[in-house]
Design brief:
By secondary structure, this protein is α/β, with parallel strands linked by helices. It contains 14 helices and 14 strands. The strands form 3 sheets. Strands 1, 2, 3, 4, 5, 6 and 7 form a 7-stranded mixed β-sheet that branches. A 5-stranded mixed β-sheet has the order 11-10-14-12-13. Strands 8-9 form a two-stranded antiparallel ribbon.
Length: about 400
């Protein structure tokens, strides 16, 4: 799974990425600080079955902290976007190419209104952050539309001649954008486009396609800047999925935890100072974060954005496969070793293929925690622990 962190320059995009991954990316208020994409690993949280089952787990592909399973997801921080990106302005072509392998997009917006349309710092409250959301969506839509229209005449001609289905032809043209065939079929059911379709219909089609294949969540950053809550309340009245956050606060907390100054679990609303000789400057910074961010908003919001991206935006669940359901172990004796993120509705047989192709090829069925047999079409639920039975 790959999630792209996107947005204008100077919105705190790279700070958000660094806070989520602890990758030491360059952070500044210069336009286009990020040129080549930064890549790192963030974590989505899940309740580990170890506490409920009364066992000590030995995670292999993830981590467990006090009963909280941290499952890795790949994150990419791409170049900042400016108006006209779909025409190649700024680093537009690179930006749009970089995001296309992502399954979801985290759009970091300066909710304080302190960054203008070109990414320049301005007085907070003088820019409407809602404009940033709309402009970014349109930039992506126009870019996809441009790629589609390059071969639109040939696509329609082949479809009308019965050589190939329209959805297959569109999928082939857009396959390099990480857009699936089912995404294309969904969009065609909503808007049936043809050779003489006007720009409005074509844009409507592309918009539906983008929403299905590249869903977006808004990280409403800089929520601790005075005046930001007014803009946040306006976002809450829209259909946009948005989360208030302070990426700078989260980065400071994670660095302080890494340096041994505090105990802090990402996503929590508290931290504990453990270094007695903490310098005054750090004490004041931590007190500000505690008072103006954690106590006011319940968290810094960064971890919540990642969790909501995976669970709400992408509709994923977590499943724990084991080789021995009685002992909850793999073949090496590790307890609850692996946690897999899979889409809701995944069946046991489909899950077997995700675990290993050889397991799928020799699939017989499975066992649940109560050691009851479950079949190939059994739909898995979030938090399930299952043993997959295979032919010896």
């Amino acid at each position: 799974m790959q999630i792209a962190v996107i947005g204008k320059t100077n919105t705190g995009k790279t700070t958000f990425f660094s806070a989520a991954t602890l990758v030491d990316a360059e952070i500044s208020n210069r336009i286009f600080t990020t040129i080549k994409p930064n890549v790192g690993i963030g974590y989505v949280r899940a309740e580990c079955p170890c506490k409920k089952l009364g066992v000590k787990c030995n995670p292999n592909n993830s981590r467990c902290v006090d009963g909280l399973r941290l499952i890795p997801v790949r994150m990419i921080d791409v170049a900042g976007l400016v108006p006209g990106a779909h025409k190649g302005k700024g680093l537009g072509n690179q930006f749009l190419s970089d995001i296309m392998e992502a399954q979801a997009l985290i759009h970091v917006v300066d909710i304080s209104g302190g960054t203008d349309a070109e990414g320049n710092p301005v007085q907070p409250g003088t820019h409407n952050p809602m404009e940033d959301v709309l402009f970014l969506e349109k930039e992506i839509d126009y870019w996809i539309l441009g790629i589609l229209k390059k071969k639109w005449h040939d696509i329609c001609r082949k479809s009308e001649a019965g050589q190939e289905k329209l959805d297959d032809l569109i999928h082939k043209q857009l396959s390099g954008l990480g857009i699936g065939l089912e995404d294309v079929k969904h969009a065609l059911r909503e808007v049936h486009v043809k050779e003489d379709s006007g720009d409005e219909d074509m844009l409507n089609f592309v918009e539906i396609l983008r929403k299905k294949s590249k869903p977006i969540i808004i990280a409403a950053n800089k929520i601790d800047v005075p005046g930001s809550e007014k803009n946040m309340n306006e976002f809450r009245e829209t259909d946009f999925l948005s989360v208030p956050c302070s990426a700078e606060s989260e980065l400071a907390l994670r660095k302080a935890e890494k340096e041994g100054d505090i105990k802090y679990t990402p996503g929590k609303n508290v931290f504990e100072v453990v270094r007695e000789d903490l310098e005054e400057r750090k004490k004041n910074a931590l007190e500000f974060i505690k008072t103006h961010v954690l106590e006011r908003f319940g968290s810094t919001g960064v971890q919540q954005v990642i969790d909501k991206t995976v669970y709400d935006l992408l509709g994923m669940i977590v499943v724990y496969p084991v080789a021995n359901i009685g002992k909850l172990t793999d073949k090496k004796g590790n307890v609850l070793p692996d946690a897999f993120l899979v889409p809701k509705g995944t069946t046991l047989k489909e899950f077997a293929a995700k675990v290993h192709t050889e397991i799928a090829e020799n699939f017989l069925g499975g066992l649940d925690l109560e050691r009851k047999k479950i079949g190939a079409d059994h739909e898995l639920k979030n938090g399930d622990v299952v043993e997959i039975l295979v032919r010896k």
